[in-house]
Design goal:
This protein has 144 residues and is α/β, with parallel strands linked by helices. The protein has helices spanning 16-30, 45-56, 88-98, 102-117, 125-143, and strands spanning 2-6, 36-43, 64-68, 80-87. 51% of the residues lie in helices and 18% in strands.
Length: 144
């Protein structure tokens, strides 16, 4: 099970039951057998733009940023995987552009961020196919 530790109010489109279902779906999809925790914070477009500029050198907002838990070389990863920062207004704009429910887009971003924390990436076509396949499996399990 993956537990999301949310430090800011949830956006209206996402409920605590959605967090629980997403954590269960991710754990099942990734075949995780031990408890994992992920910090989550929801921020404004302006806050996300600042974070994206500082951490990725891109001066524009984005949908989700992931920050791995700091571990020492040779140390095994613990229960805490890291932190996700999501921009609900950005997700809402993307959902509107794609004509989908904002809840679905937020679930997708949670899954996407956790997959990054688990070491998945989308730098190559093969990596992208694998990561997005897992991501969409989670979204399908949660949002049907």
């Amino acid at each position: 099970m993956i537990t999301f530790l949310v430090t800011t109010p949830l956006p209206g489109a996402l409920g605590s039951a959605d967090l629980h279902a997403t954590g269960r779906a991710l754990a099942s999809t990734l075949r995780l057998r031990t408890k994992r925790e992920v910090g989550v914070q929801f921020v404004s477009l302006r806050e996300m733009q600042v974070l994206n500029r500082v951490y990725r050198k891109k001066d524009r907002p984005t949908d989700v940023l992931s920050f791995d838990a700091a571990i020492e070389p040779g140390e095994e990863a613990g229960v805490y995987l890291g932190d996700l920062v999501l921009c609900a207004p950005y997700a809402a704009e993307e959902a509107k552009r794609r004509s989908i429910d904002p809840r679905e887009e937020l679930v997708r971003l949670l899954a996407h961020g956790v997959l990054h924390l688990q070491g998945y990436d989308h730098a190559t076509e093969e990596d992208e196919s694998q990561m997005f396949g897992l991501q969409e499996r989670v979204v399908q399990r949660v949002c049907g």
